[in-house]
């Protein structure tokens, strides 16, 4: 089921939706997915004001681990890209 919704958005948003949605009929699905992801993501954020110092420390350590993993993946992708560029140049 779907519902019609009329909104005022910032000037650049319609162009962004156009870029994200491959067809005019998929705009609603794209916006629905974005809102749903944001809604669930915002609700999943822990209430840091009520967390203990130890819980916050563990949360920060977990986030640091995730950042390190992403940086490792980024480095691996850079190495692969460099190898592709070198291969094509040679």
Structural write-up:
With about 90 residues, this protein is mainly α. It folds into 2 domains: about 10-45; about 50-90. The chain is built from 3 helices and no strands. It has helices at about 15-20, 25-45, 55-90. It starts with 12 loop residues before the first helix and ends with a helix. The mean pLDDT is about 85.
Task: Please specify the SSE layout and strand pairing.
Layout: H1 13-20, H2 27-44, H3 53-89
Number of strands: 0
**N-to-C series of helices and strands:** HHH
* Rg, Cα atoms, Å: 21 Å
Helical residues, percent: over 70%
β-strand percent reads: under 5%
Question: Largest sheet at a glance?
Answer: none
User: Which structural class do the helices and strands define?
Assistant: mainly alpha
Give the CA-based shape.
flat
Whole-number count of domains: 2
Q: How far do the termini sit from each other?
A: 56 Å
| Overall average residue pLDDT | 86
Number of helices: 3
* Low-confidence segments: none
Describe the structure concisely:
The chain is mainly alpha-helical.
Question: Which keywords apply here?
Answer:
3 helices; single chain; 2 domains; 90 residues
């Amino acid at each position: 089921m779907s519902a019609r919704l009329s909104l005022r958005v910032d000037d650049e948003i319609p162009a962004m939706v156009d870029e994200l949605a491959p067809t005019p009929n998929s705009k609603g699905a794209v916006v629905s997915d974005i809102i749903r992801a944001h809604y669930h993501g915002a609700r999943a954020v822990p209430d840091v004001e009520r967390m203990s110092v130890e819980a916050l420390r563990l949360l920060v350590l977990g986030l640091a681990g995730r950042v390190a993993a992403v940086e490792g993946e980024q480095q691996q992708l850079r190495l692969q890209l460099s190898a592709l560029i070198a291969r094509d140049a040679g």
